[in-house]
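Researcher: First entry.
Model:
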Amino acid sequence: SKLTSLGQLEMTWRSRVHFHPLLVRVLHKSRLRYYGKPEKKLDMPYQAYFEVADGSGMMSMVLWNSLCPEWYNSMKVGTVLLLEQYAIKTSYPFKTQPTPGDSQMKRFATIEISLNVRDPPTKISIIPEEMVKPEWGLPEVKYRFITRSELDGLPNNHSCDVIGLVTFVGRAERARKREHGEDFWLYRWAHAIDGTSDQPFILELFATSQPDVFEHIHPMTYLVCTQMRVVRDLTENPSSTIYLTTSNESQIFITGWHKGQPYTKDTKVKNFIQWTKTQSEADQMKKTVIGGYYPFPRPPNNFLKY
């Protein structure tokens, strides 16, 4: 059928009501958002953002309401979608922006694709990877993997992806979203090593929309975290309190979930796998820890400073 591109949509969307089908690849995926309120009677008040791209550039796509439970888990990073009967809206200005792996990619930020059950009822098809043709010109998923030795040189809030062998995982903890609110964030601390430094990655992992992964992070698993943000305390001793925290678009993968993921082709991931083959499992097991209270960043040594 006649396809359109994201670039053409941006130029012509105001003058059209019906749009030609789109063929895009998912490059980023946000966590699922629940926006239900007691006074609003919505059956499934869910929303999820995706960043999708074709040969012309990248645009946001929003999955609404009952389409979320139906499609959210199937739309993985790297999935190719054929979209028909979608709507185009001006973009929501306050949403979070993931950092694209390809800095040269053009970004269409004024509009977003809206997928709904009605007005119009969107038709979504997933194209299996083996049927994707090179002539469609769809971009590959690119990553920004860093090693532990590179971390100390990175600025605050820098976006990166990491892979490591888990040596510590803390218990799940809760933090209030707002001072006196009823809602909590759920998170846990983890340490992962990659052989490039004596220090581990210190990871603050908030529960994303992947409970099956979040609950099963164990020592000795290979952990991949994407779209992490660098947090460094710029006040006292910057190197001692550098850690990574999840963002709205972070994805977490553990042993058993890596097969077929786009990052398996990345050079730094391959280097890490080579390094793990040189390690003795028994030696690493002795150094692993699980659970317990993990105060971080650590409080100062004496009370006066505190």
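Researcher: Second entry.
Model:
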Amino acid sequence: HTQRILKFTKSISRRNLLPEEENHRVMGITGSLSPDQLEFFHSQGYLVIESFASEDEIRGLRKRMDELLNQFDCSVSSIFSTKNQKQTTDNYFFESAEKISFFFEEKAFGDDGILKQPKELSINKVGHALHELDPLYREFTYSSKFSSLVSSLGYKRPVVMQSMYIFKQPGIGGEVVPHQDNSFVYTDPQSCTGLWIALEDSTTVNGCLWAIPGSHKNGLVRRFIRGENGVTFDQPSPSYEQKDFVPIEMKAGSLIAIHGNLIHQSFENLSPKSRHAYSLHVVESDGCKWAKDNWIQRETMPEPLYGLP
């Protein structure tokens, strides 16, 4: 059993792992994934876990976000778009790495520059340090259920480098073009895993995730690099056949773990129903070096979920 788990976890990256028993003894954390789940994750590049968050947790996270939105000053914000990344290279975007910042949908404003709908129906996402600065989101993120999950994936000292509350607003929820999480959250060796929790049912109607199963095995295709003149990709985007993508519909409370090299996307939400989600990106801080040209640059790394100091 132990050898089988180690076989799966070693393939997630080139980082050195402790033997499973020693790993758990040091951390005091027991992995929650079964060998069959690990095998699926490493063969397909993703894994859906149903009922990861309880109804009470979902209700609490959504209520707290409503409170944050009510306190939000619309005059201090930015627009988020995956189609035109240059729109997200202002100081507000860069400083959001260590703050709770608000980003509008690209189609939220009319030609006159005024919001076409209330602000709570105009926000694309809130990020990128919710998990550190808001007590409720911190408690949820640093709970044992997350630690057990990433322990199963072989992390020795995991760090959440960014968190996002994603709204996928009805009618204007923006498209997220095909991408890999390692492009944006890069370590050497690569170690990113995305954790995406559906806070509402996520379907093909309201803009669920789509992925190319097994595409993580082809490696990283490009990086999102921060330089003196802002951020840019170091390579053009490859073209993808839509027939290769499969929809990943999820019930509220479900979690999907996403390998850092998995190609995934979501379409615009043209439906009358939103698709709220809470997303985290975890990296290894033991034996993996945070890239100096990542868009996220911090004076100190966040507190790890677990592991030796």
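Model: Note on the second entry: Confidence is low (pLDDT under 50) at residues 1-27, 80-88.
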